[in-house]
């Protein structure tokens, strides 16, 4: 099925360090479809970065948000988490960690900012945006995309009226986008998930997870995907503003270093294992987004200090497949070789 006149090679929307106008614009200008991971951005910053993207390219791009997550404040569990962070704060010469003043941005304000920015696509993870919200966005001319980790989630999203669904396989880097059953969603591999969603739905499916080169793109198309979203490979292109420590850790990691962890945010996400993920493995944590906000000062200081053991090194399982230096446009061209027009 058609991807509404957009290229089949999409950059996955990566929040955090990769939320860069230069990177998103370079992907779109280079023949792919760039997306801004805006989940952690203040509404005014979303508008600012979107304007910067537009100043760099006249090609379309997307904006992605996390659906609102139900959570209960748990100061007892949070204080226990902060106590675990304290030793690492001391190691980096930081003040003792404290409870955050703010845990997350206001979703409705973020969405209004995304609407004002007028991207071609507004996409969501970690939930169903709902019939009313999807209809309102589509009435304003946006294409709306949801994220599914199992067929049941895909059916819910289709019933809400989304234009396409991202099939997020187990291999994908970053936070899990599921919302039915377990918080991390179903842990189904991309090769099994994509054809099941293609068969079950009447809307386009984009494959995500484990795709890093032209072979992965060709495989996704053979499984029935209408396009692919690639994240980790774009972390290493010239335009991505990763900290040197993060970049070095990605270049050094092996296939066996990939792990699913709650250690940094309280919600399962895939990245490269380090001291924090190993030492907090199996430890009960307060619900997302409390640890995410609490660990932010540690992560930011570690990035500046070049200490990868304290950074959330989000990356997918296909990380070792694409480490060639180059630009976003060169990566888009390399990936596109796997797509049959």
Automatic annotation (TrEMBL):
Stored Gene3D superfamilies: Aldolase class I
Gene Ontology molecular-function annotations: nitronate monooxygenase activity
UniProt catalytic activity: 3 propionate 3-nitronate + 3 O2 + H2O = 3 3-oxopropanoate + 2 nitrate + nitrite + H2O2 + 3 H(+)
Transmembrane intervals: none
Keywords from the named record: Detoxification, Flavoprotein, FMN, Monooxygenase, Oxidoreductase
Needed co-factor(s): FMN
Similarity comment text for this entry: Belongs to the nitronate monooxygenase family. NMO class I subfamily.
Identification of the protein by name: Propionate 3-nitronate monooxygenase
Organism encoding this protein: Roseateles saccharophilus
């Amino acid at each position: 099925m058609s991807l509404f006149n957009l290229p089949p090679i999409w950059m996955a929307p990566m929040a955090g360090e990769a939320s860069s106008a230069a990177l998103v614009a370079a992907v779109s200008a280079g023949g792919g479809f760039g997306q801004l991971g805006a989940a952690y951005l203040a509404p005014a910053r979303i508008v600012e970065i979107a304007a910067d993207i537009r100043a760099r390219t006249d090609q379309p791009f997307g904006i992605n948000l996390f659906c609102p997550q139900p959570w209960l404040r748990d100061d007892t569990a949070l204080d226990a988490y902060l106590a675990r962070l304290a030793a690492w704060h001391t190691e980096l010469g930081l003040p003792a960690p404290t409870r955050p003043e703010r845990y997350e941005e206001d979703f409705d304000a973020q969405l209004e900012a995304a609407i004002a920015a007028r991207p071609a696509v507004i996409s969501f993870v970690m939930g169903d945006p709902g019939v009313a919200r999807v209809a309102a966005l589509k009435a304003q001319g946006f294409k709306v995309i949801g994220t599914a980790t199992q067929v049941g989630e895909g059916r819910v999203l289709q019933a809400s009226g989304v234009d396409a669904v991202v099939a997020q396989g187990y291999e994908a880097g970053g936070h899990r986008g599921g919302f039915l059953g377990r918080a991390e969603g179903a842990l189904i591999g991309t090769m099994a998930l994509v054809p099941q969603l293609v068969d079950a739905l009447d809307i386009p499916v984009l494959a995500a997870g484990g795709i890093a080169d032209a072979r992965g793109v060709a495989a996704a198309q053979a499984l029935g995907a209408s396009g692919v979203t690639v994240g980790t490979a774009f972390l290493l292109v010239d335009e991505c503003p990763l900290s040197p420590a993060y970049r070095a850790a990605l270049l050094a990691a092996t296939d066996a270093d990939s792990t699913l962890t709650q250690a940094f945010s309280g919600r399962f996400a895939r990245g490269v294992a380090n001291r924090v993920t190993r030492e907090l493995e199996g430890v009960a944590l307060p619900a997302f987004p409390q640890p995410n906000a609490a660990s932010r000062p540690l992560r930011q200081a570690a990035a500046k200090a070049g200490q990868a053991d304290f950074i959330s090194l989000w990356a997918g399982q296909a990380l070792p497949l694409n480490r060639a230096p180059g630009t976003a446009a060169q990566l888009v061209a390399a990936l596109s070789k796997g797509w049959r027009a």
